[in-house]
Amino acid sequence: MGITQKEIAKNLGISYMTVNRALNSNGYVSDTLKQRILDYAKEMGYEPHRASQVLVRNKKRTIALFSSTLPRYFWDEINKGVQVAAQQLKAFDYEVHYHRVPELDTQAYLTLLEQEIEHGVDAVALVNQRMYDIATILDRIEQAGLPYVTFNIDAPQSKRHTYIGSDYAAGGRLAADFIARTLLLSEKKEVLVLQCNEDNLSQAKGPNINNMRLEGFMNLMKQSFPHIIVHIEYFDTKLQAQETDTQIFNLVQQYQGKVQAMYLIPAFNTNFLHALEIVGMQNTITVLHDLDSTATLHLKTRLLSAVIDQSPTLQGYYTVLALEKILESKRKVELPTLQIDHNLVLTENRSLIHGLAAARLMS
Q1: What contacts 24+ positions apart, CB below 8 Å, involve 269-272?
Q2: Backbone angles phi, psi at 338, to 5 degrees
Q3: Are residues 278 and 188 part of one domain?
Q4: pLDDT value at residue 329
Q5: What digits encode the pLDDT tens for the residues 100-129?
Q6: Number of domains in the chain
Q7: Percent of the chain that is helix, strand, coil (3-state, to 5)
Q8: Which of 69, 115, 256, 300 is surrounded by the most beta carbons within 10 Å?
Q9: Which long-range contacts (CB under 8 A, 24 or more apart) does 241-247 make?
Q10: CATH number of the structural domain spanning residue 275
Q11: Do 177 and 259 sit in the same domain of this protein?
Q12: The domain spanning residue 33 has which CATH number?
C-alpha cells in the first residue's frame, strides 16, 4: 500500500492540511514548500485516492477522441477499448466522446472539435492521418490550451504528451520474417507484395504507415533473406470509396502459380480474401494486417496463413487512460510512449490472442 497524506505530513514535519492543500491545489501553500511536498510524494510513490479527487475538483471531466471512419472494422475495435475505459472512469465523473470523421473532410473535423471546445472538453486524442489537415487541427487544439495525445499514428514533432500505438516498420518486419521462415523448405521462393498508391491524396503530408510497413518488410528481406524474390505491385485507393473494383483480383490472378506467398499491406482485407477465394490459392502463404471478421473466418479455413495484428482494442483503452492520467496529475506530465507490440495471429492461436487482450483490459 502506498504512502498516505498523513504519513507525508508526519515525515516532513508539517501539518496534514498543508499537505492536502499542496497535493490537491485547493489552498495557499508557498511555492517552495509545495514543490518540496510534491517531490517527496512522487519519490515515495504517493497515489491519490480517486474518490476524494473527484470530490475535490467537483467537476465532470470530458475526453474526446478523433479518427477517420475507414476501415470500419479497425475503428470498431478501437471503440471497444474506448468504451471499456469509459465505463471504468464513469464512477470518477469522466465522460468520453469518440468521433469518427468522414475521410478528407477537414472542415467536418474542425466543426466537431470546435463543438467539443465550446462544451468544455478537457483533453483530446487524435490520429495523425494524412487525409486531414492535421497541422490546422493541432493549431486549434493548442490555441485552446488543451492537453492532447496521439494514438495509432504518431505526430512526434507536435506538442503531444505521449503516443499510444504500434511501430509500423516492425509490423512489416514481422510479416517478412514469417513468410521467409515458412518458405524455407520451398523449392521456389517468390513473394507478391500488394501496396496502394496514395498519390491522389493531395493534402497528404503526414506519415504513410503503408510505406513504413513496406520499408520494414523490404529491409529485413534484403538483410536476412536476400535469396527470396519480391515483386511489388501497386493499386490505387479508390477501393476505399466502396466502388466495384477488380485491381486486387487482377493482380492475384496475374501472379497465381508464379509466387509462393502473397502479402497485403493496406487495409483491403475483404477484397484480397475474396480474390483468393475465386482464384483458388490454397497452397500459397497469405498474410495481411489487422483482424476483421473475414480474416478471422479465413484463418479458420486456412485460406489465410497469418495476420499481423496491432491490438486496436488496447490502443483505444490505453489512450483514454493516458488522458485521464494527464488530467489527474497536479503537474504537467510527459508520459513515455506506449508501444503496443504486434501479434502474429495464426489459425492455432486466433482465440488465444482475443482472450489475452480481454484479460489485459480487465486487469
Answers
A1: 269/71, 269/73, 269/294, 269/295, 270/294, 271/239, 271/245, 272/194, 272/248
A2: -105, 100
A3: yes
A4: 82
A5: 999 999 999 999 999 999 999 999 999 999
A6: 3
A7: 50, 15, 35
A8: 256
A9: 245/271
A10: 3.40.50.2300
A11: yes
A12: 1.10.260.40
Both 86 and 211 in one domain: the answer is no
Nearest-angstrom CA–CA distance, 233 and 356: 35
Cell 503496443, residue located:
340
pTM over 0.70: yes
Residue 156 and residue 199 in one domain:
no
| Residue 11 within a domain | yes
Write out the residue range of the structural domain in which residue 183 sits.
Answer: 168-309
15: how many CB neighbours lie within 10 A of its CB? 11
Q: Give the Cα-Cα-Cα angle 359, 153, 266 (nearest 5 degrees).
A: 90
Both 98 and 61 in a single domain? yes
pLDDT at 238: 66
Are 154 and 165 in contact, with CB atoms under 8 Å apart?
yes
What Cα–Cα distance (Å) separates residue 23 from each residue in 28, 40, 54, 87?
11, 11, 13, 26
Query: Which triple of cell numbers denotes residue 2?
Result: 502506498
Q: In DSSP terms, which residues pair with 125 in a beta bridge?
A: 65, 149
Q: Is residue 291's pLDDT more than 60?
A: yes
153 and 280 fall within a common domain:
no
Question: 80 and 134: one domain?
Answer: yes
Burial 181-210 (b: 16+ CB within 10 A, else e): eebeeeeebebbbbbbebeebeeeebbbbb
